[in-house]
Amino acid sequence: MPDDITPPLTGPSNEDLTRRLTQARYPRSNSYDVRWVIENQMGPNALWLLEWLAPALGLDTLRPCARVLDLGCGRAMTSVFLAREYDVQVTAADLWVKPDENAKRIAEAGFADRVLPVHTEAHDLPFAEGSFDAIVSIDAYQYFGTDDLYLPTLTRLLKPGGRIGVVMPAVREEIEGVEPPAHLKEWWQPDFWCFHSADWWRRHWTRGGVVEVETADWQPDGWKDWLLWCDVIAEESPQEFHRTMARDVGEMVRADQGRSLGFVRLVGRRK
Questions:
Q1: What is the C-alpha to C-alpha distance for residues 94 and 76, in angstroms, rounded to an integer?
Q2: How many helices (H) and strands (E) does the chain have?
């Protein structure tokens, strides 16, 4: 067992966990093994966030075997979800997780012929213009997409009329000044300054002139999902690092109670 893998304390059965995590608004996600999702998470519940994004992005309208780029795919859970639920061909691109590791996970899920893992950095994507029918990014775009020059570079990979859809942690309203809200200061990290409001993201994408922004909205009660997931990961993750991080983030989200923190969904169509 690797050094950073330590067994969690004895917790609820899979059946109890499944009941705890079953959400009526995420019927597709409910069909996935909860232990598999817990073991392969790298932040908020990526399947829930992708399922919220899907109708706005029009994933159900894509032709079979359409090509989708999953940018910042982590351990490729979202890539498997895309292939299984929407019958598409997925390029699973990530910087931090090795392609061999994702290839094994993808093959075990039964989608080796539908999901191709790739090691790449978001500013150095080795794909031709017009390669993809859609681009998806879950809990990743905030780390590189605030650059004013990034979106035009990324959208050249879309076919004309193709859509890009992202979901990321966000703030309900833009934070003024140089200090975080007082009630969040105890947990605030420098990385959190990449959290922006839906209006900020709409303006940011619109100014680039390369996409028509079709959706830029705040997830109602998204903080409750985030808190539930943090509590579960803090109890059940096999990795101590993730348990500790989930406890810290969970304390922050619990203290906030939806006043400032949640998720934003953003969809744009290439002009």
A1: 9
A2: 9, 7
Give the rounded percent of residues in the chain with a pLDDT score beyond 70. Answer: 96
* In contact, 83 and 116? CB cutoff 8 Å: no
Which residues are within 8 A (CB) of 15 and not within 5 positions of it... i.e. 6 or more apart? none
Is the per-residue pLDDT at 64 higher than 70? yes
Record the pTM: 0.95
232 with 20: CB under 8 angstroms?
yes
Contacts of 4 (CB under 8 A, 6+ apart): 239, 240, 241
Mean pLDDT of all residues in 43-51:
98
| Alpha-carbon gap, residue 56 to 266, rounded angstroms | 8
In angstroms, rounded to a whole number, what is the distance separating the alpha carbons of residues 69 and 109?
19
DSSP alpha helix (H) spans, the chain:
14-21, 34-40, 46-57, 77-86, 99-109, 150-155, 198-208, 222-236, 240-256
215 by Cβ neighbours in 10 Å (0-12 / 13-18 / 19+) ranks as: middle
The torsion of the CA quartet 207, 210, 215, 220, rounded to 10 degrees, works out to -60
Looking at residue 90, the DSSP 8-state letter turns out to be E
For the chain, give the number of residues.
271
